[in-house]
C-alpha cells in the first residue's frame, strides 16, 4: 500500500481547501457560511457584480471668477 503524506492534514479542511485553491482561509470560511445560508436552488453570489460605480467626473463651474 502506498502511504501519501499531506502537507496539511485532512482534519484541517479549511487550511487544506485554501492550499488547494490558492485562496485565503477567510475566503474559504465566507464561502462555507454563505453556502449554509442559501437554499439548494440558489447559486452562490459572486462579489462585485452589484457594486455601483461612482462618477469620477469633476464639474467645475466658474472656477476662474
TrEMBL record:
Residues 39-65 are annotated as: Disordered. This is Uncharacterized protein. It comes from Diploptera punctata (Pacific beetle cockroach). The lineage of its organism: Eukaryota, Metazoa, Ecdysozoa, Arthropoda, Hexapoda.
